[in-house]
């Protein structure tokens, strides 16, 4: 942050902007402190798991979670979600924030002191804690000792170098850290969420072990060569991409690729809405069906306002489809998990008299379903797409498909 001028001629707008920027730093530090305080108020406790008749362990109640490195305390999983809802972020984002606060407070005490004093911004500390959580206590202490005095001036590259040096300083554990780090760097991502940015094309990237990469390359070479006779008009890159699709379908035994596309024929445009992707053209949809051995199923229109009911506990196929189309994501505050993978919850419990009807069914991801069932969260439906949630602390959240806000009374 720029040093304040001592002259009385300082521009009042710049002075006010500096004050506002410093207030933001202090506010972020205060929220960081409250995250650590909340974790201390809700320590980890072991809940006995439920074992089914088949011997499968099912995690129903609250579970302890470890969010920071060696020596930092764990906390209640349900408490993470409650804190995240209170500050207006998703549960996953709340885990990251609380984890960074615990890492800093318990393993980087010098850095913590400077954050609390407003001398180092929280956003930079979080880049540091992303690197230090894997270090043993001695390594974290080394980083804390050397970076705390200068962290506000350090680049991200300097932070990474300090962490690598800390690894070298702990020779007794360095070999194991190196082995774990090497395994941890392997990944393969199919970024479906970015398809809408690339006209329906999905970015794929990864870092593979050499033997795995070699086997994949050989398979792609063979597959693209085989496709040359069938698709001479395609480039090598296009044939390789198509070969990867055939390879995945063949190895997994996939009989069909399911794409949920919604279109109103009466509309004059040729745009369809594809779940998890957004809008695309009918021509693009046709290409997808043409390039893969796809089975196309056209389902009849489903009335989202119809009140479907069954006497059974388990919802019917039509009830599930209706619930997913009505609320495409988990209906908990700030949760964006696709309803396709969610549990279908009885808002009023079935064993308490709740019926298996459209009005009484809503999609909840497994964590938020557990919280509702075992964590003293309650909710009620206001409209087809809006809900009122009440936390164990008594906070009330109004939730709909696009908006969540904490109600003040």
Mind explaining what this structure looks like?
The protein is α+β, with helices and mostly antiparallel strands. Helices cover 44% and strands 14% of the residues. The protein contains 13 helices and 17 strands. It has helices at 12-41, 77-87, 91-107, 109-116, 122-132, 137-147, 156-169, 171-184, 210-228, 236-252, 282-291, 317-326, 366-374; strands spanning 50-51, 57-58, 64-65, 75-76, 187-190, 204-207, 261-262, 271-274, 278-281, 309-310, 343-346, 356-357, 361-364, 378-383, 386-390, 396-400, 404-407. The chain is globular. The mean pLDDT is 82.
Brief overview:
With 409 residues, the protein is of the alpha+beta class. It has helices at residues 12-41, 77-87, 91-107, 109-116, 122-132, 137-147, 156-169, 171-184, 210-228, 236-252, 282-291, 317-326, 366-374, and strands at 50-51, 57-58, 64-65, 75-76, 187-190, 204-207, 261-262, 271-274, 278-281, 309-310, 343-346, 356-357, 361-364, 378-383, 386-390, 396-400, 404-407.
Give the secondary structure arrangement, pairings included:
Elements: H1 12-41, E1 50-51, E2 57-58, E3 64-65, E4 75-76, H2 77-87, H3 91-107, H4 109-116, H5 122-132, H6 137-147, H7 156-169, H8 171-184, E5 187-190, E6 204-207, H9 210-228, H10 236-252, E7 261-262, E8 271-274, E9 278-281, H11 282-291, E10 309-310, H12 317-326, E11 343-346, E12 356-357, E13 361-364, H13 366-374, E14 378-383, E15 386-390, E16 396-400, E17 404-407
Antiparallel strand pairs: 1-2, 3-4, 5-6, 7-8, 8-9, 10-12, 11-13, 14-15, 15-16, 16-17
Helix pairs in contact: 1-3, 2-3, 3-4, 3-5, 5-7, 6-7, 9-10
InterPro entries: DUF222 (IPR003870), HNH_nuc (IPR003615)
Domain HNH nuclease: 319-370
Protein name: DUF222 domain-containing protein
